[in-house]
Write a structure and sequence with these properties.
The complex is a heterodimer of chains A (76) and B (559). Chain A is built from four helices and no strands. Chain A is an all-alpha fold. Chain A has one domain: ACP-like (Non-ribosomal Peptide Synthetase Peptidyl Carrier Protein, Chain A), CATH 1.10.1200. In chain A, helix 1 packs across helix 2. Chain B has 559 residues and is of the alpha/beta class. Chain B folds into three domains: 196 residues, 3-Layer(aba) Sandwich (Rossmann fold); 94 residues, Luciferase, Domain 3 (Luciferase, domain 3, Roll), CATH 2.30.38.10; 105 residues, ANL, C-terminal domain (GMP Synthetase, Chain A, domain 3, 2-Layer Sandwich), CATH 3.30.300. In chain B, helix 3 links the parallel strand 3 and strand 4. The chains are: A mainly alpha (76), B alpha/beta (559). Chains A and B meet through helix 2 and helix 3 of A and helix 8, helix 10 and helix 15 of B.
Chain lengths: 76, 559
């Protein structure tokens, strides 16, 4: 499940007030989430959770659910 | 005698069959290394199959394929038949299927597309185009599904075209939907250009070109595909989608493959300087990199500074900061800064720019730092034109016009557009600039086109789709670009008139504007809702884009 914290970081970076996100949500479904913004979002998540993603992890992410699972794994 | 690009490719395979031609990079996998011999054998296999499917000399073949190691031999196979390859962008998942089809229809009308060579995944999306009345498209093929038939490979495949004036390729000017203009380039134009431009940057077989640039763009196709393959320079090709997600991949490839030449649009300098972390750079060395050529977007001095500051500790040299002014209509480059010398910067007074004069800024005046795009390459001439088409002297700001041995003959099937820009052998670019000591400095555009991350976007495309959004007054919307210093590119702003007054419905409308633009693969950063009759009209009764842009900047806190 997508946490409020992760959703908050994404919405903040995209300058969005609200947008429903579920596990299967992909970047292309979220207004303003393009590839240029993607790099900013990833860096904002790294800062918010004090963690680091590896290059391949970033490239292989397919959905917000996968992003959440990766964060959970790294912060466990 | 070498008359065609194909002749050069054949000569390379005969001279250096075991030398690397293309190194295909995929993150997390060992790179796939095409030697000239392997590449030609694969091209031969594709060539036979394509001929069997009915592809003939002169047919236009669109290639819509993601980063795939078989793209290169497939492209060569199309060339071997004397057909015209045209690389088109693979649709982004954000792009609405109808918009993608409309774009293809527009291109088919202009270019007379005969064949689509694409991936199975797009079958459903593309198939309806075939059955449409008046469609020129004769078939959709999925060559990546074909098994390589090694028993039918010959070396080299049969050559179908021998004349240097024969068409070599077709490329499209960028744009979101129906406004792409097709440019056909002859073998002669491409070969002449590569030799002249290659000499300017001292390109040699011991160079290594590393690129993530998409091949549907002239910078990627000419600089990072044709140039290396004609001159026999190994090319390292990275996936554009992987690079944008993890920009460090380019530095990794440059480092591991001893890259010496790279072309980048301006935003990439900022992105890499700001978004690559220190610990990702552990194994990176950029000592072999002799030129990084800034092209396709206005060159920004601050971006060069940032890039150099960030990567100097990793061996990147200041003198490797180069720049080029280029466009599809001139095959590629018009001007280029020389190797071994940093692209020159000058401080110009903003007040002077307003008066059309590029005068040095003194004291505390507001200053625009301009970066040189270099001198015209051999075979190219430039003029700076005033309002009535008169020649302006050095230091005066005007429209850049170009004459070149590699100039296109006109937009395919589009006499009207051709007549607008091509007069007496001179191409008027729509870009604004000045000359100083023989070097060209580009300062802006006469046209309203917006350039975001190297991609040209026409405001009309955005305004058209937004006029159809419920809540927006039809025809009462403008889109324009605004400098985004942090990103080193432009961001897209929209002002739309609406009668809606409730905060909830206005919030919903702003979101709808952003979502609608996503459907044409455009990201709007700032949708602003204005009351009816806010937009200033032109004499033709339409919103005047530049006047409204100024008003929006002044009144809506657009900085």
């Amino acid at each position: 499940m997508v946490s409020e914290k992760l959703k908050g970081v994404i919405l903040r970076e995209l300058d969005l007030e609200d947008f429903d996100m579920v596990d299967s949500t992909t970047a292309s479904m979220v207004p303003g989430w393009d590839s240029l913004k993607h790099v900013r979002i990833i860096m904002a998540i790294e800062e918010a959770y004090d963690l680091r993603f590896r290059t391949l992890e970033v490239i292989r992410l397919k959905s917000v659910g996968e992003l959440q699972a990766l964060i959970d794994k790294k912060t466990a | 005698m070498s008359n065609t690009v194909w002749d050069y490719w054949t000569a390379n395979v005969e001279k250096h069959p075991d030398r690397e031609a293309v190194v295909h990079w995929v993150a997390g996998e060992p790179p796939f290394r095409w030697t000239w011999k392997k590449l030609f054998l694969a091209a031969s296999s594709f060539s036979i199959r394509l001929a069997e499917m009915g592809i003939r000399k002169g047919d236009v073949c669109a290639l819509i394929i993601r980063h795939n190691k078989f793209f290169y031999p497939l492209y060569m196979a199309v060339s071997s038949l004397g057909a015209l390859p045209a690389v088109l962008a693979y649709p982004n998942p954000r792009l609405h299927p109808d918009k993608f089809r409309q774009g293809l229809e527009g291109m088919a009308r202009r270019s007379g597309l005969d064949w689509m060579l694409t991936e199975k995944e797009l079958d459903e999306m593309i198939r309806p185009l075939l059955t449409q009345s008046g469609s020129t498209i004769r078939g959709v093929l999925f060559p990546l599904e074909w098994e390589e038939d090694t028993s039918r490979q010959s070396m080299p495949p049969t050559r179908k075209v021998t004349d240097s004036s024969s068409p070599c390729l077709l490329q499209h000017s960028s744009g979101t939907t129906g406004l792409q203009k097709a440019v056909v380039l002859s073998n002669r134009a491409v070969i002449e250009h590569i030799h002249r431009y290659g000499a300017c940057i001292q390109a040699a077989p011991d160079d290594r070109i590393v690129s993530w640039l998409p091949l549907y763009h002239d910078m990627g196709l000419i600089a990072a595909f044709y140039l290396p393959l004609v001159l026999g320079i190994p090319l390292v090709q990275i996936d554009p989608f992987e690079w944008i997600l993890a920009p460090v991949i380019l530095l990794d490839a440059l480092s591991k493959e001893n890259g010496s030449l790279a072309w980048l649009p301006n935003f990439a300098y900022n992105l890499m300087a700001d978004r690559i972390r220190e610990d990702d750079l552990e194994d990176v060395r950029l000592d072999t990199l002799r030129m990084v050529i800034n092209c396709s977007e206005p060159v920004r001095a601050e971006s060069h500074e940032r890039f150099h500051r960030r990567f100097a500790p990793y061996g990147f040299r200041r003198e490797s900061l180069a720049a080029c002014y280029a466009m599809a209509e001139t095959t590629f480059a018009v001007t280029q800064t020389p190797p071994g010398v940093e692209a020159r910067k000058v401080n110009i007074s903003l007040q002077g720019i307003g008066k059309g004069i590029a005068e040095s800024a003194i004291g505390a005046e507001t200053v625009r730092r301009c970066v040189s795009s270099g001198k015209p390459i051999p075979g190219c001439e430039i003029r700076i034109l005033g309002e009535t088409g008169e020649d302006l002297p050095d230091g005066s700001i005007g429209e850049i016009a170009i004459r070149s041995v590699s100039l296109f003959d006109g937009y395919r099937n589009n006499e009207e557009k051709t007549a607008e820009v091509l007069k007496d052998g001179w191409y008027t670019s729509g870009d604004i600039g000045f000359r100083q000591e023989g070097e060209l400095f580009v300062v802006g555009r006469k046209k309203d086109m917006i350039i975001v991350a190297g991609k040209n976007i026409y405001p009309e495309d955005i305004e058209d789709v937004l006029s159809q959004v419920e809540g927006v007054l039809p025809g009462r919307v403008i889109a324009f670009g605004l400098e985004d210093e942090e990103a080193g590119t432009e961001q897209i702003c929209v002002v739309a008139e609406t009668p809606l007054t409730g905060e909830t419905e206005r919030k919903r409308l702003r979101l709808a504007i952003v979502e609608t633009c996503m459907g044409i693969d455009v990201t709007v950063s700032r949708p602003y809702l204005a009351p009816p009759r806010w937009l200033i009209k032109s004499s033709a009764g339409k919103p005047a884009r530049s006047a409204n842009r100024e008003r929006a900047i002044n009144e809506l806190n657009y900085q």
